[in-house]
């Protein structure tokens, strides 16, 4: 399954790394990623698509726990085309 | 005031009177501030010992434990302890020195990316980038370590910030958030409990962490629902509670494992369906609906999909779930299983049977004794055969299973609770993993009692080799162990060795009555195994109970 997510958070130097570590460790692969700081570098906005055999809620709940993350939204999901897995 | 003095003041503001650590270059300013700063510092003899002492301190009191290390090797030596605290949700704040800001990223002497290393083994970590951040970061670190699901938090402080001027920080007193309990969920839970014929409580470490022991016991008193616990849940329920069946899982009691497989409603309280508990997951509690109470929403539906979950504070939920129910047949079944499958202590021959020895120790030890264990067979025997009436009195590395945990954890517990007896139960393998902490015991003249159960093997691994690897004992034979009593005596710790049943009573008395630290070295047969055992990949009711 492929899932499209957005993550809103307060920015810190290691935040991107922190988020991506959780994505990998919980069993998800990143297909696309766009990261952008906003509000004078105060916040970080992330759009990403990930794929995994696992339930996406296993990831979103872990992301929501990260200190500084203010919102995780699941925008869309679609069955993954196997070839890219 | 410089940054380092500011840190010491902030510790005091957070009611921290005791810290554990080891000095070095990048943390020297903080050690200078500690010199006469009014916070007691205990020098451990390895940073791993310091973080594990902080864990012992935290787990024996429920308060935050603090440890301190220098940059580079000091900080990397903390990692195992941080991982241990992470897995067992222990509130620890670790403070590390870092090389000066302008040297970060230049491969400076003793520079390592501690923030990067910490990501996988802390609840959160901070690197202080300027003096203004120091106050708010310390405040957040203590808040994060202790709130919600507790865990370790690391603060990395570059040397220039320790040395530079501090910036005043007025802490903002946040009003406590009063959470609303979801009444609909409560009603649903009450209905599920009332409908159940065979409800069972599965109690984990979260109950103790939430300081919800009293509401839990009250809930059990009213509902009289049979219960089991996890390794970290030991002590939450009184050991002699009528329908309490003991620990569940791989080395759980037969009664617990059978009850789990038979129940029709499983109420998981502060527990997380760890694989050592569930055995084969899709055959765990196969007939049960599940209610999951846990403050960490990420634990809900992680391994077991549940019918109902609540993530509010257990102290608020449990009183609302009290309901009288009639489940006599099931209660009777629990009582029968308790009797039929009770532990047996008859054992042929003169050699010491560790389960019986531990049972006897539990009977002889004073009230409120803290038992700290290492990892292996002896750890499981403690869990199975000793009895504990407070989670703070059973300190065992559960989630990470960290050998070398017992001695430093006992150091921390003894410092935290000087008036209570503290006993470290260790194995000959584990003991050697943080044996340098005998130096800490000596330094502080800490009256820590050590019961060393010596089978001249890495016993738990040997057991698995026997059972699952055709008895090919690869690197688990420790017949070349040092003379442990002589070793202890080098640290001014008296001790003795025993090897027969007839010596037990007197030796345990000497252990308990010795004025200072004491080592009771107990020689046992290498052939002893931990039973029952749910083999890897099997359902919990498929227990092995002997070599046959
Ligand atoms: C740091 C660490 N390394 C390795 C292991 C794997 N391990 C688990 S139990 C065990 C043997 C422990 O031996 P000992 O302390 O003598 O206790 P026993 O099982 O004999 O009671 C080992 C090696 C571990 N849990 N922790």
Topology:
The complex is a heterodimer of chains A (85) and B (548).
Chain A lengths: L1 E9 L4 H11 L3 E10 L4 E9 L4 H10 L3 E10 L7
Antiparallel strand pairs in A: 1-3, 1-4, 2-3
Chain B lengths: L2 H11 L4 E4 L6 H8 L4 E4 L3 H15 L3 E5 L3 H4 L2 H9 L4 E7 L15 H5 L5 E4 L3 H16 L5 E7 H5 L19 H13 L3 E5 L2 H4 L3 H11 L3 E3 L14 E4 L6 H9 L2 E5 L5 H4 L10 E5 L14 E3 L3 H7 L7 H13 L13 H11 L5 E4 L3 H9 L8 E2 L10 H11 L5 E6 H4 L6 H7 L4 E6 L4 H10 L15 H6 L5 E4 L5 H10 L4 E6 L25
Parallel strand pairs in B: 1-2, 1-3, 3-4, 4-6, 5-6, 7-8, 7-10, 8-9, 10-11, 11-12, 13-14, 13-15, 15-16, 16-18, 17-18
Helix pairs in contact in B: 1-2, 1-7, 3-5, 3-18, 11-14, 16-17, 16-23
The complex binds thiamine diphosphate.
Describe the overall structure:
The complex is a heterodimer of chains A (85) and B (548). By secondary structure, chain A is α+β, with helices and mostly antiparallel strands. Chain A has one domain: ACT domain (Alpha-Beta Plaits). Chain A is built from 2 helices and 4 strands; from the N terminus they run βαββαβ. A 4-stranded antiparallel sheet of chain A has the order 2-3-1-4, covered by helices on one side. Chain A is globular, with a radius of gyration of 13 Å. The model of chain A has no long low-confidence stretch (mean pLDDT 93). With 548 residues, chain B is α/β, with parallel strands linked by helices. Chain B folds into 3 domains: 161 residues, Rossmann fold (3-Layer(aba) Sandwich), CATH 3.40.50; 158 residues, TPP-binding domain (Rossmann fold, 3-Layer(aba) Sandwich), CATH 3.40.50.1220; 170 residues, Thiamin diphosphate (ThDP)-binding fold, Pyr/PP domains (Rossmann fold). Helix content of chain B is 37%, strand content 15%. Chain B has 23 helices and 18 strands. In chain B, helix 11 runs parallel beside helix 14 and helix 16 crosses helix 17. The longest helix of chain B has 16 residues. Chain B starts with a helix and ends in a 25-residue tail after the last strand. In chain B, 54% of the residues are buried. The mean pLDDT of chain B is 97. The structure holds thiamine diphosphate. The site of thiamine diphosphate has 20 residues of chain B, from helix 17, helix 19 and helix 21.
């Amino acid at each position: 399954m492929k899932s499209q997510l957005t993550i809103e958070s307060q920015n810190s130097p290691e935040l991107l790394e922190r988020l991506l570590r959780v994505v990998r460790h919980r069993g998800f692969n990143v297909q696309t990623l766009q990261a952008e700081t906003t509000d004078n570098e105060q916040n970080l906005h992330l759009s990403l698509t990930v794929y995994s055999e696992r339930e996406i809620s296993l990831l979103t709940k872990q992301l929501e726990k990260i200190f500084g993350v203010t919102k995780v939204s699941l925008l869309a999901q679609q069955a993954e085309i196997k070839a890219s897995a | 005031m410089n940054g380092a003095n500011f840190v010491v003041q902030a510790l005091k503001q957070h009611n921290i009177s005791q810290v554990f650590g080891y000095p070095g270059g990048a943390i020297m300013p903080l050690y200078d501030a500690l010199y006469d700063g009014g916070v007691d510092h205990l020098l451990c003899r390895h940073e791993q010992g310091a973080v594990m002492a902080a864990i012992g301190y935290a787990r024996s009191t429920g308060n935050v434990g603090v440890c301190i290390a220098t940059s580079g090797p000091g900080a990397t030596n903390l990692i195992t302890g941080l991982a241990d605290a992470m897995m067992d949700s222990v509130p620890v704040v670790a403070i590390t020195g870092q090389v000066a800001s302008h040297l970060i990223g230049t491969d400076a002497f003793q520079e390592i990316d501690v923030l990067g290393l910490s990501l996988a083994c802390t609840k959160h970590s901070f690197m202080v980038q300027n003096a203004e951040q120091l106050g708010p970061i310390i405040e957040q670190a203590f808040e994060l370590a202790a709130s919600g699901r507790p865990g370790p938090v690391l603060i990395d402080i570059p040397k220039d910030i320790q040395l530079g001027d501090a910036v005043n920080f007025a802490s903002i007193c946040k009003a406590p958030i009063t959470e609303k309990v979801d009444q609909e969920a409560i009603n649903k839970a009450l209905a599920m409990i009332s409908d159940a014929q065979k409800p069972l409580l599965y109690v984990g470490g979260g109950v103790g962490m939430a300081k919800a022991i009293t509401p839990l016991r009250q809930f059990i008193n009213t509902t009289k629902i049979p219960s089991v616990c996890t390794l970290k849940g030991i002590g939450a329920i009184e050991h002699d509670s009528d329908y309490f069946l003991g620990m569940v899982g791989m080395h759980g009691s037969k009664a617990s494992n059978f009850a789990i497989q038979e129940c029709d409603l499983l109420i998981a309280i502060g527990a997380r369906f760890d694989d050592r508990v569930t055995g084969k997951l899709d055959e765990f509690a196969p007939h049960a609906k599940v209610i999951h109470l846990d403050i960490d929403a990420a634990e809900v539906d992680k391994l077991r999909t549940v019918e109902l979950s609540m993530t509010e504070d257990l102290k608020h939920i449990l009183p609302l779930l009290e309901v009288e129910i009639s489940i006599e047949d099931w209660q009777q079944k629990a009582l029968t299983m308790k009797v039929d499958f009770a532990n047996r202590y008859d054992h042929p021959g003169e050699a010491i049977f560790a389960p019986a020895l531990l049972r006897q120790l539990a009977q002889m030890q004073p009230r409120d004794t803290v038992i700290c264990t290492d990892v292996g067979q002896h750890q499981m025997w403690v869990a199975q055969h000793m009895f504990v009436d407070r989670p703070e009195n059973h300190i065992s590395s559960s989630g990470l299973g960290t050998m070398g945990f017992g001695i430093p954890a006992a150091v921390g517990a003894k410092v935290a609770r000087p008036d209570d007896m503290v006993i470290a139960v260790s194995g000959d393998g584990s003991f050697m993993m943080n044996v340098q902490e005998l130096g800490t015991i000596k330094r502080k003249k800490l009256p820590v009692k050590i019961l060393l159960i010596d089978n001249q093997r890495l016993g738990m691994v040997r057991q698995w080799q026997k059972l699952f690897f055709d008895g090919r004992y690869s690197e688990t034979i420790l017949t070349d162990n040092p003379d442990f009593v002589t070793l202890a005596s080098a640290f001014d710790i008296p001790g003795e060795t025993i090897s027969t049943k007839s010596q037990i009573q007197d030796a345990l008395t000497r252990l308990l009555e010795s004025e200072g630290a004491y080592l009771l070295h107990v020689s046992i047969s290498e052939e002893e195994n931990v039973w029952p055992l749910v083999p890897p990949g099997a359902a919990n009711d498929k227990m092995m109970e002997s070599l046959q």
